[in-house]
């Protein structure tokens, strides 16, 4: 059980001006600590690589096009049992099935545009955090740099 996970506020979440509220919910309500954070726009090939584990899925091309369509906010988070805790916190992948008051329930507009991504395993969390952040962009509780 690891203590880190990676989220992205997806292009629709940023476009709909939900970035501030989502970060507030994650930190204040969820109790997750921000270890690293940046806003960026993924190129198509970057989105392809990030979601490579879904390359055999019918929704892959559409997901890649959407995720590279506008800026996202990538955030590395820390909490005990972070992957599971975060997935429970944000609600089910499909916003129509996400529990009342969760981020995906409040801000998700479709299965694809479900406001936020959450890593699905410790192994993927590490890969995804390293995808976006170098060792000079991740901080411990004292503000010192650290490696995962
Ligand atoms: P995310 O947490 O970013 O991880 C993979 C994404 O694929 C998921 O959120 C959804 O947005 C998307 N996804 C999963 N299943 C489907 C599906 N059946 N159709 C379209 N998109 C999907």
Low confidence ranges: none
Distance between the termini: 14 Å
Helix/strand/pairing class, anyone?
A: alpha+beta
The biggest beta sheet reads: 4 strands, antiparallel
Percent in helix? 25-40%
Descriptive labels:
single chain, 148 residues, alpha+beta, Alpha-Beta Plaits, four-stranded antiparallel beta sheet, 4 strands, binds adenosine-3',5'-cyclic-monophosphate
Plain-language structure description:
This protein is of the alpha+beta class and 148 residues long. It has one domain (4-137): 2-Layer Sandwich (Alpha-Beta Plaits). 38% of the residues lie in helices and 16% in strands. The protein is built from 7 helices and 4 strands; from the N terminus they run βααβααβααβα. The chain has helices at 11-15, 19-29, 44-50, 60-67, 82-90, 103-107, 122-132, and strands at residues 4-9, 33-40, 72-78, 116-118. It has a 4-stranded antiparallel β-sheet with strand order 2-3-1-4. α3 (44-50) crosses α4. 33% of the residues are buried. The model has no long low-confidence stretch (mean pLDDT 96). Adenosine-3',5'-cyclic-monophosphate binds next to β4.
Topology summary:
Elements: E1 4-9, H1 11-15, H2 19-29, E2 33-40, H3 44-50, H4 60-67, E3 72-78, H5 82-90, H6 103-107, E4 116-118, H7 122-132
Antiparallel strand pairs: 1-3, 1-4, 2-3
Bound molecules: adenosine-3',5'-cyclic-monophosphate.
Adenosine-3',5'-cyclic-monophosphate binds at residues 59, 63, 93, 111-112, 114, 117-118.
């Amino acid at each position: 059980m690891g203590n880190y996970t990676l989220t992205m506020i997806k292009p629709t979440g940023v476009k709909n001006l939900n970035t501030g509220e989502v970060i507030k919910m994650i930190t204040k309500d969820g109790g997750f600590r921000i270890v690293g954070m940046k806003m960026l726009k993924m190129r198509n090939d970057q989105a392809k690589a990030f979601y490579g584990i879904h390359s055999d899925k019918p929704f892959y091309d559409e997901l890649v096009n959407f995720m590279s369509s506008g800026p996202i906010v990538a955030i590395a988070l820390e909490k005990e049992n972070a992957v599971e805790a975060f997935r429970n916190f944000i609600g089910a992948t499909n916003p129509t099935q996400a529990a009342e008051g969760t981020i995906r329930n409040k801000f998700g507009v479709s299965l694809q545009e479900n406001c936020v991504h959450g890593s699905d395993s410790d192994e993927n969390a590490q890969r995804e955090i390293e995808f976006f952040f170098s060792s000079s962009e991740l901080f411990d509780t004292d503000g010192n740099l650290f490696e995962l």
